[in-house]
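OP here, attaching both records as promised.
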Amino acid sequence: MLNNNHIEIIKSTIPLLESAGPALTQHFYQRMFSHNPELKDIFNMTHQKTGRQSVALFEAVAAYAKNIENLAALTTAVERIAHKHTSFNIKAEHYQIVGHHLIETLRELAPDAFTKEVEEAWTEAYLFLAQIFIDREEELYQLREKATGGWRGTRRFVVTDKKPESELVMSFVLTPEDGGKVLDYEVGQYLGVQVTPSKGENVEIRQYSLSQAPNGENYRISVKKEGNNSDQLGLVSHYLHDEVEVGAVIEILPPAGDFFYTEVNKPVVLISAGVGCTPMQAMLQQLAKDGKSDPVTYLHACENEQQHSFIDEVDTIVSAKGWNHRVWYREPLSAEGINNSSTGLMDLAQIKDALPTNVGHFYTCGPVIFMDHVVKQLESMGVERERIHYEVFGPHANL
C-alpha cells in the first residue's frame, strides 16, 4: 500500500528521472522486448523505432511522479490511456511484465540511487497505478462485451467495400463475418485494427477513427497512406491500401476512445486538417441524423484539392442542412478552388464574426502543429479551454 513515506521517496527521485530523460524509457523498451519479444505483437513497433513512444512513456512516468500527491490531476490521462489500452487488448498479466522491467530499468540505470527504500516505493507506486488501469480497463471490457453487438478481444470482420476518398485516403467498410450486430459507439471514437502486413515481422495493431455515424450493421474507417511503406512509417497503411481488398477478413477490437461529441444544446464547430477529418465525418453525419437545431460549422484544411477527402459527402450534408462550411488549401492546384475555399493555412480571423466564440463548442482533430495553431487562435478569440475538445493521432500530446 502506498504510504506517505513512499510518496516522499517518489518525489525525491524526480530530479533523477528528469536527468535520465527519454533514455530511461528507451532502455526500458529495449529490455522488455529483449526478454519478452511476444509483446512486439501488441506494441506499435513503428512508434518504437521513431522514438515517439519512448518520449510519451517518459512524460507519463514523470507526470505520475510529479502528481503522486494529487492523482486527481491525472484522471483525464488515465481515461485516455485506458481506452487506448483496450484497443490493444492489454490484460492484467501484461502489467506484471511491464512493472518488472520498469523496476529493473531503474536498478540498472541508477544502481547507486536505487536503494531498497527507493525500490519499495516505486514498486508500490507502480502497483497502485497499475491496479487503477486494470480496474478501469476491465470495466470497459465488460461494458462492451455485454452491450448489444458487443464483444471482447478481436472479432473477424469482412471488408465489404473499399473506396478512395482522396489521393491518400481510402475508406473500408467492415461487416462482421458472423452476420451479427455491431457495437454502437460515440462519434469521434476509433477501432483497433489487427493485421499481419506482408512486409512486416509482427502482428500489428493500429487505431483508426470511425468515419461514419453508428448504424448497428457495420463500421467504416478511412485510412491515410503514410510514409514509404517501411517499418519506420506506413507499414500498415500501405498494406491496407495496396493489399487488402473486398472480401478480405480483418481482426477488429471494439470501439474505444475518450474523444467524442457530447450534445450540450449549443452551436458546434468541427475543425480538422488532413486525415483528421475522419472523426469529424462521423460527427457531421450524427448531427445531421439527430436534426441538430443549433448552428453547425465545418472547417477543414488540407494540402490541395486532390488530398481533400469526403468532398461530395460533406457538401451533400451541409447543403441540405444550410450549415456553414469553409476549406483552406495550403497550396491549391487550381486558382478557382471550390466554393468557400481559401489559400494558405487556416486563418480563423477571416471568419471570426461567423464563429460562436461566446457559447459554441469546438471539436478539432489533426496533426499536433495544426491543433496548436487552432487552439491558440480560439483562445485569442476568448474561447475557454473547456469548450475546446481535441484528438491527436499517435502518442498523445498536451496543447
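Record two, same layout:
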Amino acid sequence: MASPWSRAAAPFLLLLLLQLCSWGVALPDQFVDPTCPQQPLPAALAALLPNYGGPVCKPPAPHVPVAVFPYDVDPVQFALNLEYTEAEFFLHGAYGEGLDQIAPVMAMGGPPPVGARKANLDEKTLPVIKEFALQEVGHIRAIKRTVGGIRRPLIDLSADNFARVMDQAFGYVLNPPFDPYVNSLNFLLACYVIPYLGINGYVGTNPIIDGYKTKEAADATEIYACDVCSSWQGCWVWRQGRTRCSGRSSSSAAARPCRRTTSRWAVAEFTDRVSALRNRLGRCGVKDEGLTVPRELGAEGAICTNVLSADKDSLSYARTPAELLGILYLTGDEGKPGGFYPEGANGKIARSFLGN
C-alpha cells in the first residue's frame, strides 16, 4: 500500500519529469559568435566526449537518494528572481536584446524589463559580458528543469534606477547621474550591485535544501556566482578599474579617465559605499564588504585588501530571502516593493511577504 507521502508526492514527481524534458534552447543567430572557428574537434578531445564515443562516467552515489524534496522547491525557485535580473542585465548590456528574443519560453509570460539597453562596452569587456549573459540563460534553464519555474517579475534595469542606488549609497545626488550603460567601467560597477547578492542567496539556501539534484543546481550556480564576483572584484577591478584610476583606490588619487566615468570617486569608493548600503538595507550586520576593509575584517585579520568578500573564517556570507528583498527593493523592507522589482519579486516566498 502506498504511503500518504508517496501519494502526495506523485504529482510533484510527475511535474519534475516533465520539466526534465523541457527548457531546451536553440539560440537565435544574433547570439551566436560568427568568429568562432568552424573546425572539427581535435581527435584527442573528441575521444574524451561521450557524444563521440568517449567514456561515460557516472557521478558518485548521493548520500540521500532523493533528487528533489518538495520543500526544496520554493527556496530554489526564489533564486530565479535574481537569475532573471542578471540574465536580462547582461543580455541587454551585451546584445541589446533579452530573454524575449533569445528564449522567450523561459520568461513564462512575465513582463519585459524596464529601461534595459545595450551598453557602450569596449572590445575587451564585451566578450566577457556576452559569456556571462549566455551562462545566465543556462542557469535559468537548469533551475527550471530541476524544480520548475516562476514568471519573470517586472524588473527595473533603467539608468535612473541604478542612479538611485548610487545616490542612496553616497548619501546625496551624484552629478552627473550614474549611468551603467555609458561605458565599460560603469557597467562593471553596476555588475557589483546585482550579481554579488546571488552568492549570498545560494549560500543561505544550501543548508535548507536536501535533494541531491537541488543541491547540485544550487552549488553549480553558486560557484559561477562566486566566479562572477571574483572576476569582477578581483581581475576586472584591478585591470579595468584601478589601472584607469592610476593604480590607486583612494578617491583623491583618481585620474582623469576615472573622473570621466565615475565623477571624482575611484572604483574602490563605489564598492565600499554600495556594500555599506546593502548592509544597512539587509539589517543583519556586516554581510557585505567592498574592495577595502579595516585589517580586522581582512583575511585572518592580517590584510586590508579584499578581492572576495567573506567572514572571519573566509567563508562566503549568507543572506535570507527577506534580507535580499529588502536590499533589492531599496526599501530595507521585504514587504515594500521598489527598486529593481517595482511590483515585487515572484514565487511563493517573495509573495508571502506581500500577503499575496
